[in-house]
Amino acid sequence: MLKDAKEKIEIHLQRGQVQELLGNWDEAESDYRAALELGKDDAARKVDAQFALGKLHRLRGDYASALAWLGQVQVARTQLEDKAGLAQVLIETGWVLWRQGDYAEARERLTAALALAQEAGAKLNAAQALNNLGIVAWSQGDYAAARALYGESLNLRREMGNKVGISHSLNNLALVARAQGDYAAAQVLHEESLSLKREMGDKWGISTSLTNLGVVAMEKGDYAAARALHEESLSLYREMGDKAGIATSLINLATVAIDQGDYAAARALYEESLSLYREMGDKRGIANSLNNLGIIAYSQGDNGSARALYEECLLLCQEMGDKRVEAYALLGLGLVNLAQSKPVAREHIMDSLRLRVELGAQGTQTSNLVAVAGLALQAGNPHFAAQLLGAVDFALKALDAPLEIEVKHLHAQTLAAVQAQLGEAVFQAVWETGGKWSLEEAVAKALTS
Fold it and tell me: Which domains occur in the chain, in start order?
């Protein structure tokens, strides 16, 4: 019905945004390309369509195409002296760089975007820049900085009544709570975020919240609920063609399979996810998949393959500055070396523990304590090993968290050996002594052992 080209462009862009929110990405692309064609002689509208296509390619996990579109937009908006628009494209570019594991470049773009947004009075863009800076901090294990940035972003979004943004900030605050072992707070925040996303019909957001609730359920040992949540999120991601989301759901389903002892299914799922991440050039995802494949190889006694996978993962993490996954890779290498009675095992296990203390990741520190108990037993100190196992048991109960899969076999093996060496009565007394230590005390004793 419309005759005016500018009005037609606006309708195509707006309808494309709705289709994007609903996860109908092919339809969204059709609208954005129609807007691009109609606006080819209108610089401002043309760049809006290019930006929309860049964002859509980022959502699909096609990072090379996303950066190509966004590069054109950055040049055009610089020429137009559009500060708010330039902030917007720098935010999207920073997001892609983060996905590719280039944290330093991502932070640089996002910091520049925040300054431009504040200068232009563009609160929506400022909130997004703060949120994404929080994601970079979280990825590098700086949880205090991440929480502060997420909180500042959430306050701005509440002030504007921006439901999409509020739901994202709640989700990210939940991730920090989960990383620090506060699963109850994480679940409440994820559920509040999911409720907002369902209210809006945000299919991608719903998928993300389902994924995160599935992880919380898994960490609480509710594998049936975890599997159902991850399968629902995977189905939605497949509908949208979101490669990054599909890969994440595959990893989570594989982790459930591992916890239930189905290593064959887990390996197939991890390998599929790794293939997708390599296709996208997503270094963070590649590192996670390598670490998880290392866990399977180690669990099945294939120490050679496990070592190679952990070493590749470690190199990637150090290249990116991803301390969180680096701690996992170091622990994995420590476990492999411990199984082979190599002295370097202590160095890897302790380096991993120090990183986790730095990150404030209490839920995962218990895994390192199990590994140190294994070191103590191997060194002929079953009393200290029993004390550490007691501390681990009480800490996990306090955190309402299960023992991580990579140390389950070592825990069972060490526990049985210590009980046999000490005898039941002595073991029980020593174990209870360790149970009276706080997690912080146990970690301090482990680091000085």
Answer: 300-449 (1.25.40.10)
